[in-house]
Amino acid sequence: MAEEYQVTSLVVHCKPELETQVSDSLTNIAGVEIHASDNNGKMVVTVESHSQSALLDGVEAINKTQGVLSATLVYHQIEPVEE
Fold first, then answer.
1. In angstroms, rounded to a whole number, what is the distance separating the alpha carbons of residues 60 and 19?
2. pTM for this entry
3. Is the pLDDT of residue 1 over 90?
4. pLDDT beyond 70 at 10
5. Between the CA of residue 51 and those of 23, 34, 54, 58, 68, what are the distances in Å?
6. Terminal Cα distance for the chain, rounded
7. CA distance 30 to 55
């Protein structure tokens, strides 16, 4: 199977009073990066991976993070990795 690059973006809503803790937790998940926050519990997040299963694991970990209310998929892209 050819290697792929996968990226998905999400809008994550969390309890505003827990935003700092949620942000710290999310940045500890492999492939996750926070790009923006409104300091009221809304964040723009990406998850990058080289496999669909790892990407889904990252999204699932976001959803299971304490304080996260919702994680809404906005975009998903798959590109083959050139050898």
1. 18
2. 0.90
3. no
4. yes
5. 24, 20, 5, 11, 24
6. 13
7. 9
Q: What is the pLDDT of residues 32-75, one digit of tens each?
A: 999 999 989 999 999 999 999 999 999 999 999 999 999 999 99
Tokens 């669909």 belong to 52
Cα three-residue angle 78-82-83, rounded to 5 degrees? 140
DSSP string, 57-76: HHHHHHHHSTTEEEEEEEEE
How many CA atoms lie within 13 Å of 37's alpha carbon, on the beta-carbon side? 16
Q: In what order do the strands lie in the sheet with 4-14?
A: 32-37, 42-49, 4-14, 68-80
